[in-house]
Amino acid sequence: MNFFLEVLIGGLLSGLMYALVALGFVMIYKASGVFNFAQGAMVYLAALSVVGCMEKGAPLWLAIILAFVIMTLFGIATEKFVLRKLVNQPPIALFMATIGLAFFIEGLAPMVFGSEPRALELGIVDEPIPWILDNWNMVISKFDLVAAGVAAVLVATLALFFQYTRVGRALRAVADDHQAALSIGIPLQHIWAIVWGVAGFVALVAGMMWGARNGVQFALTFTALKALPVLILGGFTSVPGAIVGGLIIGASEKLAEIYIPPVMQDLFGGNFGGIEGWFPYVLALLFLLVRPEGLFGEKHIDRV
Amino acid sequence: MLYREAGQFKTTYAADQQVFPIRQDRIGVIALLVVAFVGVPLFASEYWFSAILIPFLIFALAALGLNVLTGYAGQLSLGSAAFMAVGAYAAYNFQLRVEGIPILVSFICAGLTAAGVGILFGLPSLRIKGFYLAVATLAAQFFIVWCLTKFPWLSNNSSSGVISTQRLIIFGYELTTPVEKYLLVLSIVVVLAMAAKNLVRSATGRAWMAVRDMDVAASVIGIKLMPTKLLAFAVSSFYCGVAGALYAFCYLGSVEPDGFSLDMSFKILFMIIIGGVGSIMGSFLGAAFILLLPIFLDVALPFVAELFGLPFSSATVSHIQITVFGALIMFFLIVEPHGLARLWQIAKEKLRLWPFPH
Question: Among all residues of chain B, which has the CA nearest to that of A95?
Answer without folding.
Answer: B131
